[in-house]
Structures are given as structure tokens and as C-alpha cells.
Amino acid sequence: MKTQRFGIAAVSGAVLSGSLLMSAPALAQQPWSFSANIGAVSNYIWRGVTQTGDQAAIQGGIDVGHESGFYAGTWASNIDWDEGGSEDVVGIVPVDPNTGLPMTDADGNYIVEGVTSGSDPASPNYELDFYAGFSGAINDDVSYDIGAIYYAYPDGRESDFAEISLSGSFKWFTLGVAYTVYGENDDGLFDDGDLYYFGGADFALPYDFGLSLRAGYYQFENDDVVVGSVTDTSGNVIDLTESANYWHYGASITREAGDFGTFGLNWDQNNGDQEVGYDTDPKIWVSWSKEF
């Protein structure tokens, strides 16, 4: 399973990161348009979960769009899923009632009732996304977007995954779903079959301010995460599991500042199981982005 994405670890709404949706770049009068963006955030939040251990991130991307509605682009950010390369074991070693000795498995290793904590030395340092899709409008109030995105972590363990998504918007409101079609974390989180449901609303406020609301629900195909273990009277180790599925929600207030870009004040939170590794504390973070 991924780190936070848990303590486990694309682009619209108020800022370049931590958003619910990926949207096509604005089109100019020519058939093709090109743009670039750069941003800085005090915390990279993705679907309600920090990707930087509550630390800052520098982000940016390049987009191309066609008047037909086709768009494609790439986007990158630094990430930090952990803080080192060690692993500590927390728990107790049960005593065999027949021998009075600590219990071991078939290989002679102590059986530990508890959970492991620490960090993975193969944790990646940056995320690189590639996306493409098609967006269009049925009328002035109704629009849609069909997209695909590949999340890559080139310098870390096998964590890449890919999604396809479908969303529809009516005036200020958007609803959609993303489906994971490929994942390198076999039989774990962010593998084939995961579903992510999302919704949001964007409102223009006076004096170039904007208000964005967002919420989402992650339904993992392999949602059971081992959080500990117990030993029965026969000496068999039984894993204790909790569901990794979770809701998240948030809001942003942004201010357009002309050539100085867009500034944002943001709040995000999730209700995941803390035994799984979710940090459920509210996250308040600031952001800046600019498009060229």
C-alpha cells in the first residue's frame, strides 16, 4: 500500500494541487493553445491526504489544448511519504502456555502481536503525472469531461497507477467518478478496480475572490489493511484488519491578483481510520499559482 497517500500518500478548483478534478486548459482563438503553470503550496493535499508529510511543495506543469475539446499535459510535484529508512516494531510477543517460551513462527521468528511503524527506504521524492482527455459543452449550463491520467513515481518503489474518469458539470456544480485501470501495487491500495467518487462547486465572489467546495469518497478494491494480529489457542496468527476506504472534504478561498497569480487559503480533512494510518486532523494550508 502507498504511504500517506497514508503516513500512507488533478488539476483545477482553487489551486494546482489537492484538487478533485482535472480540467482542460483554456483555449485561445487558434486551433491549438499552449500554456505552462507553476505553483507553491504549504502542504500538498491529494484527495484529503498529505503527500508531503505536511510540508511545502513546488509544483508545475505544461498543457496543450485543441479547439475540438482535446487536451493533454504533464504535471510534477515534490512529495515526501516518510522521513527515513528504518522500521520499528511495536507490540508484544505472546508466551506459549505449554512451554513458557516466547512464541515463534515456522522460521523461528518471534510472533509479534501489534503493528509495525516507520518508513520505507524506497519512498519516492517526486510525482510526475501525464494526462489527456476531451471536454465539451452541451449548452451554456451543462458540460462534461472524459479523461485519463497516469501517476508516476520514477525514483521510488513500484507505486505507479492509472485512472480513467468521467465528470459532468451543471453551472457551478460538478460530479464525477474515477476508476483505477492499472496499478503496480498488486492486491493492495491503488490497484486495478479502485473507485473514487468526487463532487465540487465553484462560485465567483466580489473583488476577484472565488469559493470552491469539494468532497470525495475512495472505495478501494482491496480495502482491508492489516493493523495488527492475535494468536489463537492453537498458536495460529490471525491478522486484524480495518478498511482503508474514507471520505474527505474541503474548501478554498482564492484571490486573483493579475500578473501576480492566484493566492489561496485552503482547508482539507478526511475521516479515515487512524489505525490504518490516516491523519484525520484538519489541514489548513496556503497556495499560490500562476499560468503563462
Structure description:
The chain has strands spanning 32-41, 45-46, 49-50, 57-66, 70-78, 87-92, 113-118, 126-137, 142-152, 161-170, 173-183, 195-204, 209-219, 224-231, 237-243, 246-256, 262-270, 283-291. With 292 residues, it is mainly β. It has a single domain, classed as Porin (Beta Barrel). A hairpin with a 4-residue loop joins strand 8 (126-137) and strand 9.
Brief characterization of the structure:
The protein is an all-beta fold. It contains no helices and 18 strands. The strands form four sheets. The protein has a twelve-stranded antiparallel barrel with strand order 1-4-5-8-9-10-11-12-13-16-17-18. Strands 2-3 form a two-stranded antiparallel ribbon.
